[in-house]
């Protein structure tokens, strides 16, 4: 672990210093009044874990079984848009970091690197694909074919984003896609010469101005260009019928991300999904959404025997991961923390963040008197 960086807040502070303000706040902040962001944190802080003394554990087993596989720990690196702007070839670095721990890395539809290039850069990583359904279905199905060609066997469909959320700070910072150069935005970039030289200039000298790499070639333009073509806009009217069609087309595991009610969880089970992510999109989309921790137990009670249930949003420490597990989640997706690590130290920074989470989980499990992470369900005091 990097000297002096002892917890997630330390990595966040370094990321804030090294990244342009617009990019950092895009990663770090929420939406509208940021009520959901605060509520997620408060919901996790209220949860305590049962303690058992004299349990006799000097080490613990973090391994979990998910679907038909066993993983070294209950973590998945979540899909995050534009991770390649945080560090040059950032998606491949995150995939290799995940591979170091034997956990999946979920490639975002809105990544800077294609899934093919990520596969080349991380040949041994377990890649999942996150899907935003485009209005042009033929182009969407082509992306699924490309993912399967890269041995991605798990598809996560994000179902909680019918439109782009309102983020006032992005407008104030001038950060948007397409990125429109302004005096404020250019000044922001120039105040971060380390990022400018190590990330942006490296792209400009090699592959050119970054873009959403999964867009079809005819729509793939630089982040400074207009990308409003109808065909590649996110489908606003996505429905359960669309999910049924995806289920028919996709031969691998299908997960729906953004489920926050028992009604939707039940529909997911009925339609043939293999899993769901109980997620509030990290507080970045719907500011009035319930915190995942408040609805997770009833969702587990409703469909836990029929679906693999995962959770995300708001994880800052390993103890937060354990809280979601104690509420019934089988595994936990982490998004912001790996990005902070990536900004602070590239691939090694992402590895260090994962190691930090593992160490914190191990420590809290020993204090809780539990030797196996799969025994954590029901250990929450709410």
UniProtKB/TrEMBL annotation:
PROSITE patterns: FMN_HYDROXY_ACID_DH_2 (PS51349). Gene3D superfamilies: Aldolase class I. Residues 1-382 form the FMN hydroxy acid dehydrogenase domain. Its cofactor is FMN. Keywords: Flavoprotein, FMN, Oxidoreductase. Belongs to the FMN-dependent alpha-hydroxy acid dehydrogenase family. This is Alpha-hydroxy-acid oxidizing enzyme. It comes from Thalassospira xiamenensis.
């Amino acid at each position: 672990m990097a000297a002096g960086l002892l917890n997630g807040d330390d990595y966040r502070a370094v990321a804030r210093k090294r990244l342009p303000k617009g990019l950092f706040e895009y990663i770090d902040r929420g939406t509208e009044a940021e009520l959901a962001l605060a509520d997620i944190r408060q919901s996790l802080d209220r949860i305590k874990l049962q303690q058992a003394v004299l349990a006799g554990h000097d080490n613990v087993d973090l391994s979990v079984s998910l679907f038909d596989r066993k993983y070294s720990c209950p973590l998945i690196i979540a899909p995050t848009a534009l991770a390649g702007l945080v560090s040059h070839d950032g998606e491949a670095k995150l995939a290799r970091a995940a591979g170091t721990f034997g956990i999946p890395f979920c490639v975002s539809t809105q990544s800077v690197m294609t899934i093919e290039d990520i596969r080349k850069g991380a040949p041994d990583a377990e890649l999942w694909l996150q899907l935003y359904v485009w209005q042009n279905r033929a182009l969407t199905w082509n992306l699924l074919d490309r993912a399967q060609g890269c041995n991605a066997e798990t598809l996560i469909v994000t179902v909680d984003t019918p439109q782009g959320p309102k983020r006032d700070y992005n407008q104030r910072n001038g950060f948007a896609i397409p990125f429109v150069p302004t005096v404020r935005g250019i000044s922001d970039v120039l105040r971060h010469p380390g990022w400018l030289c190590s990330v942006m200039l490296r792209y400009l000298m090699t592959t050119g101005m970054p873009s959403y790499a999964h867009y079809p070639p005819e729509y793939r333009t630089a982040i400074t260009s207009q990308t409003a073509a109808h065909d590649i806009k996110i489908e606003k009217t996505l429905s359960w019928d669309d999910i049924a069609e995806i289920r028919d087309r996709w031969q691998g595991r299908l997960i729906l991300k953004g489920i926050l009610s028992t009604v939707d969880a039940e529909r997911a089970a009925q339609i043939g999904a293999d899993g769901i992510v109980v997620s509030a999109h990290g507080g970045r989309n719907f500011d009035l959404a319930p915190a995942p921790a408040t609805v997770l137990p009833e969702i587990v009670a409703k469909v836990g025997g029929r679906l693999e249930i995962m959770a995300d949003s708001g994880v800052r420490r390993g103890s937060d991961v354990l809280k979601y597990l104690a509420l019934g989640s089988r595994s936990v997706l982490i998004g912001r923390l790996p990005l902070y690590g990536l900004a602070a130290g590239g691939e090694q920074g992402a590895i260090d963040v994962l190691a930090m989470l593992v160490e914190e989980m191990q420590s809290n499990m020993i204090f809780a008197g539990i030797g196996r992470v799969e025994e954590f369900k029901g250990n929450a005091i709410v």
